[in-house]
Amino acid sequence: MDPHSAVGLGGNGVLGVVIPLDENRPDPEASLTDLVALVATGMERVNATILSRTGSSVQMIPEVANHLIASGGKRLRPILTLATADMCAYAGDGAVKLAASVEFMHTATLLHDDVVDESDMRRGSVAARIKWGNEASVLVGDFLLGQAFRMMVEVGSLKALDILSAAATVIAEGEVMQLAAAKNTETTEDEYLAVIRAKTAELFAAACEVGPVIAERPRAEQAACRAYGMNLGIAFQLVDDVLDYGGTSASLGKNVGDDFREGKITLPIVLAFRRGTDAERAFWKRTLEAGDVSDEDLATALTILRGHRALEDTLERARHYGAMARDALGLFPKGPMKQALLQVVDFCIARAH
Amino acid sequence: MDPHSAVGLGGNGVLGVVIPLDENRPDPEASLTDLVALVATGMERVNATILSRTGSSVQMIPEVANHLIASGGKRLRPILTLATADMCAYAGDGAVKLAASVEFMHTATLLHDDVVDESDMRRGSVAARIKWGNEASVLVGDFLLGQAFRMMVEVGSLKALDILSAAATVIAEGEVMQLAAAKNTETTEDEYLAVIRAKTAELFAAACEVGPVIAERPRAEQAACRAYGMNLGIAFQLVDDVLDYGGTSASLGKNVGDDFREGKITLPIVLAFRRGTDAERAFWKRTLEAGDVSDEDLATALTILRGHRALEDTLERARHYGAMARDALGLFPKGPMKQALLQVVDFCIARAH
């Protein structure tokens, strides 16, 4: 029986119970639209803050920073900070600066990542390191990190500072973990999860946790928002992993198969490797570990991944974390902000289709 | 008349006034010994903190961090934090963590600098980026920066957090400024000073300022310690610039002429370029701007620098900032810590001989 049909007559002839619209059921029409509309005023102030805080008398800094910041991105992380603060009835000024801090931390990570990954493209544009050099990417990243901390200090919440500075450490640890695990096809699913928890999900978690923290809500609500962000972040990264093999160049802003060509071990690979034949494992070792990749290898990789349902099952795992994210918000009363945050989970996963 | 002779008979026959030992007069026997002894107990705790805070379950992080941290360096910056806190009669626990934070900020800068400069050597050892790759240098630097902020948060002084996070931003700005000015032989002395104020002296200034800040001393003492650190930092960098052309490989831990080969514009170059003939300017443009450097060019460079007294006069400029650093401490009463801090200025300059 479709739980969306409000009333039904059971097969045994008794009048069916009314089944309420289940907020834990994924919304097939999920989009970011509601959430974006709800935080629009705050995000205008976040964007103005971002613009003013990339300002520097050193000309190259706003150039490089704005190249990346202006090139889009949904600004999901700062949106989450505003949204969780609002859901917790926060009425002060601090959320805007914390949201801008979160976006700066994210941008700094992207700049440093490009140097680490030797990427040529980012968000559909030439990567900053190609245009201005590795030096500028490292240093402007450092500048943005410094500005992020300055804004947090201005907000004055030591607890929020603690959360975000700890996140900065954990993110770097996650990146180093990824580096150490790089090109190791025998990475386990648990090891991979530890990496993406640290390098991606931790910032989502921190972005969501500081909302109830500055609103001075009870610990349980802080933990709930943190868990929502953490699981949303994991789901988000897993869907990204799928998109890297299944999206189109146009919609993704980068080429399909980037992870494959860079020898990145992501969950689809972890699953396919463990489910594969000896010949398939030899293929993954040659291409990902030895870096011996020809033009036809991507097609072969996709065939193997599909043969083992590795992309579908990665998405299934993402749904699992998405469900955890939805449940984490259970203790908050219904309201438009909560509803919009639930939709975001579904939106993140629906990207993969 | 030698002001160190306590009593003299003036030429006009009247008894000369007693001239006290002038604390503003450079001490030719200057060394770090006194200061190191005075902060020894605190530095043991700083070193233990540094060791424990580079700990991570991600093995590569302590490896890379300790490669650099264990390879020496005088730890002048954390020493300055302990010393200024002590001079201001601070009795709490915070100075140790702030001192460790300062050293982590410095180490992070060194790691990122090596990537920016593409250096092969650092403190007489192979640079971390050569041993572990640029990726590790970028990311372990980020990790240390995150840990630095976590320790500051633990200390709980928003004012100290403000000073050190602002310093992080200014340092990055200074590095970008240097990048933008790189290979420009027409850099003015003022432009060069702006760069080293930001990239080197700001951290000295912040390291010294947080001492009186956590001791909750009046603004004038905070400003005095900041000015001491700022001017000491400028003098320190100018002496480094001289050492790069005049030190020996053994004593310096890096090869003489590194700055020259990397096309770095430092004050000796700025002075020699402005004082030079057209032929000499063409030489600097060829070697530093165009990067066309042969093995004999370093000897030529040294001859030109000496011909214009560029190294001596850079050292003279360093003495000027050293004198400002000494005077900045004027309002503090005499005492062994103040005396040791004055000696440090002379020690920094005496390195150049």
Order of helices and strands of chain A: HHHHHEEHHHHHHHHHHHH
The DSSP helix count of chain A reads: 17
CATH class of chain A: Mainly Alpha
Q: Indicate the CATH topology of chain A.
A: Farnesyl Diphosphate Synthase
How would you name the CATH homologous superfamily of chain A?
Farnesyl Diphosphate Synthase
The oligomeric state is homodimer
Number of strands of chain A: 2
- Computed structural class of chain A: mainly alpha
Protein name (chains A, B): Octaprenyl-diphosphate synthase
GO molecular function (chains A, B): metal ion binding; prenyltransferase activity
Family (chains A, B): Belongs to the FPP/GGPP synthase family.
Organism (chains A, B): Methylobacterium gossipiicola
Topology:
The structure is a homodimer.
Chain A: H1 33-38, H2 40-53, H3 60-70, H4 76-87, H5 94-117, E1 121-122, E2 125-126, H6 128-132, H7 134-155, H8 158-181, H9 189-214, H10 219-246, H11 249-252, H12 258-261, H13 267-275, H14 278-289, H15 297-307, H16 310-328, H17 336-350
Antiparallel strand pairs in A: 1-2
Helix pairs in contact in A: 2-5, 3-7, 4-5, 4-9, 5-7, 5-8, 5-9, 8-9, 9-10, 10-16, 13-16, 16-17
Question: What do you see in this structure?
Answer:
The structure is a homodimer of 353-residue chains. Chain A has a two-stranded antiparallel sheet with strand order 1-2. The first copy, chain A, has helices at residues 33-38, 40-53, 60-70, 76-87, 94-117, 128-132, 134-155, 158-181, 189-214, 219-246, 249-252, 258-261, 267-275, 278-289, 297-307, 310-328, 336-350, and strands at 121-122, 125-126. Chain A has 353 residues and is mostly helical. The first copy, chain A, is globular. At the A-B interface, helix 5, helix 7 and helix 8 of A face helix 5, helix 7 and helix 8 of B.
